[in-house]
Design goal:
The complex is a heterodimer of chains A (345) and B (478). With 345 residues, chain A is mainly alpha-helical. Chain A has 12 helices and 4 strands. Chain B is of the alpha/beta class and 478 residues long. Classes of the chains: A mainly alpha (345), B alpha/beta (478).
């Protein structure tokens, strides 16, 4: 969460490790160029899919990184909160409000649903923090971690009871067709809208953290909660606010995801949560920009691997994502944009 | 610092959740006939059930066990059909069905339970001199939302241990059968499946793996039979249909399960023999949020048709939607799937919706209407079923046929497990009694002698019968 400091370039000196890293990067670039030259349209089309998936991952990844940044807790329940958001948003839109087709009014209703779902998830996340994490604030680190896993299961089961065990279809309210075509690459309305919703949300979040009083309190609490308390910052309220922000992002991601894939399921949060958590680690956990970068990278890696003519194919996507994670962590243990953590004494 | 009640908050939350979970369980279990060893499992909060599935593989579901084994009443809304007319002689034997009652296949499985119950009632719950009690057992878990490997094994262990169980009607899924057959083989319990189509369960052929089928029968005696033809037939039918449609190149996807991979392999093998180019036979991730990128890659290869070897539960609906989104409708690029995708829900909003329009589906058997046209006992039974329960699914009548074969074997036996197993492959159901409208029996591998094979095609929200296929025998060679 702290500002990014200037640091030496990736390949500062030609050590053997750095040479290996460089070699891998060159191989990666070669692979991309090979595919691009052979099928440029397909390459760009797949890239657009990867960016859209990445945008959804980013909204979830932010929740992980915000919470980790402030209390160093990996909130495993976050992916499931996202799932509850998608289920709630779907029921609110399709069932309770009865909006099932695409029209201008439906889009306005959808915008309202996004806001309400953001509020819903924000409230739940604050509630979870209050009930499950705050009492364990001073307990050993493992206790809240296990609690988070427990909360994750509880949320999954709420989703299971609420939504049934199978996939549930969702009526898409966003327009389904192609927004525009550049050089044979079709950009779908849905992708465009998801990116158009994600970017402003990220900017607002970034602004809140950097330029508001509450954001300053968050950064202070992240650095040293005791010192922050001595300075008169209400640490509990600040942490609750952080959870609210994370929840709001999960709510937005839930509705966007539901509109994009048009199905949801009670365990949708597990795999996506894992991916988003990985994205947060990849980018440098605790770092907002890092989470977004990591999420977009994972979205792209998955899509390129599944969609390019010369690739390992869909069967290997997860293995590939995690191999890349391992490689990056081997060369940069703090993540792409993360800072080397200093041991707190 | 903290007041006492604040410390209690987490406890209260847990209590509320446990309560909700308990209510959920009550809804699921319409009966009290739960097997004794499973009662404790059923009481555990749903949190445990979910815990099991969060592992990458389903095999982690150690404690879901048979939490839902007793779902008998769910299908009919009444308690288990225990033997009401106590038999005058011959003891009290039990037949169980082992089907996935939850998940996307659940709706179809429940119609099988209804059909089995109806058939048994019409037989007066008797097989010759023996009174027969029936119990429906679930091999799926809510957490997996489909058949669950641990539950399958646990179920089989339970049947093996319960002496009065003479036969098992099941399973639905070949992967589940692969786990249950060896256990029941050693216990000497007969098994008749209404729906397993995995080739290697009974014989070597296109789609079987090395070591099959012998690894399923450790005692060397066959205790398993099925009333539907296997996937080598289904693959051949799919390939012949594609040839008929003028397909030159085919992209095959599979869900990486025993069944899905098997039927995909069989289809690819048969299509290749017919001169169709197989662009790939690739596994997909059933938990992926969408398949846009995958279909973009496929689009680059420009296939004439896509074949999805999978069960609907493995995100089948999403695959169909994304296929149409990227590759266009199913007229332009043909889409075909096996019986595992053939559920009445497929063209509804719950699954693929309008995207399924024009999709071809192969089925190892005939549709209910075609069986009805054959007249006789089959037509009579289906009419009775429809009057009571409404429209049957494709496998519904095969559930009753499996029960029919099982009762025949019990009737001919001496009332022991060994007796039933030794009679099983001798069963011949004459045309006038057959619930399938034609005479059927089993060959030495336990495969049905009735080789019906048909194609269905989605039209609107319905999946009507398209045509029957006479399978070309040369396509069946391994």
């Amino acid at each position: 969460m702290a500002a990014i400091e200037a640091r030496p370039a990736l390949v500062a000196r030609l050590t053997p490790t750095n040479l290996v890293a460089l070699g891998l990067l060159v191989a990666l670039a070669g692979w991309l160029v090979w595919n691009f030259v052979e099928a440029p349209t397909q390459f760009m089309q797949v890239t657009s899919i990867g960016l859209t998936n990445g945008a959804i991952y980013a909204l979830i990844a932010l929740g992980y990184t915000l919470v980790y940044g402030i209390i160093e807790l990996i909130n495993f329940a976050h992916g499931d909160l996202f799932m509850l958001g998608s289920v709630f948003g779907m029921h609110l839109l399709n069932d309770w409000l009865g909006v099932v087709d695409s029209s201008f009014t439906s889009w306005l209703v959808l915008a309202g649903v996004v806001v309400v779902t953001m509020g819903f998830c924000g409230t739940i996340n604050v509630g979870i923090e209050r009930v499950a994490y705050r009492p364990l604030r001073h307990a050993p680190k493992l206790a809240p971690l296990i609690t988070a896993i427990g909360v994750s299961f509880i949320l999954q089961n709420i989703g299971l009871l609420w939504n049934g065990e199978g996939q549930v279809g969702i009526n898409r309210v966003l327009p389904s067709g192609t927004a525009f075509t550049i050089g044979g690459v079709h950009i779908a309305w849905v992708s465009l809208i998801i990116v158009a919703v994600t970017i402003p949300l990220l900017m607002v979040l970034s602004w809140v953290v950097r330029h508001t009083r509450q954001g300053k309190a968050m950064r202070a609490t992240a650095q040293d909660s005791d010192a922050a308390r001595l300075m008169g910052i209400d640490v509990n309220r600040t942490i609750a606010f952080t959870f609210a922000l994370g929840g709001v992002m999960a709510g937005a991601a839930g509705v966007m995801y539901a509109q994009f894939t048009t199905t949801t399921r009670w365990d949708a949060g597990f795999q996506l949560g894992l991916v988003a958590f990985t994205a947060a680690v990849l980018g440098g956990i605790g770092n907002l920009q890092g989470a977004v970068l990591g999420a977009v990278l994972i979205g792209l890696i998955q899509a390129l691997n599944e969609g390019l003519p010369h690739s390992l194919g869909a069967e290997w996507s997860q293995s590939l994502v995690f191999s890349i994670l391992i490689l990056i962590l081997v060369f940069r243990p703090e993540g792409l944009l993360g800072q080397t953590t200093q041991e707190k004494v | 610092m903290k007041t006492w009640w604040k410390r209690l908050l987490p406890l209260m939350l847990v209590a509320v959740v446990a309560l909700v979970a308990a209510c959920g369980d009550d809804e699921d279990e319409g009966t009290t006939e739960a097997a004794a060893p499973t009662t404790a499992a059923a009481e555990t909060s749903a949190a445990d059930t979910a815990a099991a599935d969060t592992g990458a593989a389903d095999t982690g579901a150690a404690d879901t066990g048979a939490a839902d084994t007793a779902a008998t009443g769910e299908a009919t809304g009444e308690s288990a059909p225990a033997d009401t007319s106590a038999p005058p002689s011959g003891g009290n034997f039990k037949v169980v069905s082992d089907l996935p009652l939850q998940g996307a296949s659940g709706a179809q499985s429940k119609t099988l339970v209804q059909a089995i119950q109806l058939y048994l009632e019409r037989q007066g719950n008797r097989a010759g001199n023996y009174g027969i009690e029936y119990e429906s057992v679930d091999d799926s878990t809510a957490a997996a939302a489909k058949w669950d490997p641990t539950t399958c094994s646990a179920n089989a262990q339970r049947y093996a241990g319960e002496e009065n169980i003479l036969g098992v009607i099941g399973t639905f899924n070949s992967g589940c059968a692969a786990l249950e057959i060896p256990i029941l083989n050693q216990a000497g319990v007969a098994m008749v499946s209404p729906a397993n189509t995995g080739v290697g369960l009974t014989h070597v052929g296109p789609g079987s793996e090395s070591g099959e089928p012998d690894k399923y029968y450790p005692t060397g005696t066959r205790n398993y039979a099925r009333v539907v033809p296997s996937d080598d037939f289904q693959g051949a039918a799919a390939a012949q249909m594609m040839q008929q449609l003028g397909v030159k190149s085919l992209y095959v996807l599979n869900d990486k399960e025993v069944y899905g991979k098997g039927v995909a392999d069989a289809t690819a093998a048969a299509a290749e023999k017919l001169g169709i180019t197989i662009l790939a036979n690739e596994g997909y991730d059933p938990k992926a949020p969408n398949y846009d990128a995958l279909f973009e890659q496929i689009k680059g290869q420009n296939p004439d048709a896509i074949y999805i070897g999978a069960i609907i539960d493995n995100n089948g609906g999403q695959l169909v939607k994304d296929k149409v989104k990227i590759l266009g409708d199913n007229e332009t690029v043909k889409l075909m799937g096996p019986d595992g995708m053939l559920v009445n829900d497929l063209p509804t909003d719950e699954q693929a919706g309008a995207a399924a329009e024009g999709m071809y589906l192969t089925f190892s058997g005939l549709g209910p209407d075609q069986i009805k046209e054959r007249g006789g006992a089959a037509a009579e039974f289906l009419t009775a079923y429809e009057a009571q329960f409404g429209k049957p699914e494709v496998y519904t009548v095969y559930g009753a046929a499996a029960a029919q074969a099982m009762l025949k074997a019990i009737e001919a036996s001496d009332g022991t497990r060994e007796g039933v197993v030794s009679q099983l492959l001798q069963v011949k159901v004459p045309k006038e009694e057959s619930l399938l409208g034609e005479e059927y029996g089993f060959d030495e591998n336990g495969d049905t002698t009735l080789k019906d094979m048909s194609i269905f095609r989605v039209k609107g929200t319905d999946i009507p019968f398209e045509q029957a296929i006479a399978v070309d025998a040369t396509l069946l060679e391994a």
